[in-house]
Amino acid sequence: MPYVxxxxxxxxxxxxxxxxxxxxEAYPRFMEDVLSVTVLERRDRATVTEWVTRLEGRILKWKExxxxxxxxxxxxxxxxEGDLKKFEGEWVMRETPDGTQVTLTVDFELGxxxxxxxxxxxxxxxxxxxxxxxxxAMRRQVEEGGAGAP
Length: 150
Hints:
Number of domains: 1
Distance between the termini: 36 Å
CATH topology: Alpha-D-Glucose-1,6-Bisphosphate, Chain A, domain 4
Shape: globular
Strand order of the largest sheet: 1-7-6-5-4-3-2
Structural class: alpha+beta
Order of helices and strands: EHHEEEEEEH
CATH architecture: 2-Layer Sandwich
CATH superfamily: START domain
Strand content: over 45%
CATH class: Alpha Beta
Number of helices: 3
Helix content: 25-40%
Number of strands: 7
Largest sheet: 7 strands, antiparallel
Radius of gyration: 15 Å
């Protein structure tokens, strides 16, 4: 099962970065490959969201449970149903003297065992590129302002 971890320093307060990461419905406004995010259910410190994204020209859809831990600046997510066999991970934000260190992890499984050896390395590269793109988009939002910036 492929696992991806990317990290980026965002020059802004951890509260602002966390607020932006928590506002998943805003992602399509500044993340090109996120086509839509719809909150289906709001719970105490959690949401169920429906995602539609584009990965290398392919549309991927899923529903996920997002769990918010503001006290520790973490957001955990896991697919409830969707196009992948497994899709889960977390956002971890850590305050530093230079801003906020953000780490995004994705643990996923395509669900095609026969082709796993061939497809997993390609999928892992594409997911890594997508994660890096998400963090860069968040950096621009916080550091340069714009729609969705706190």
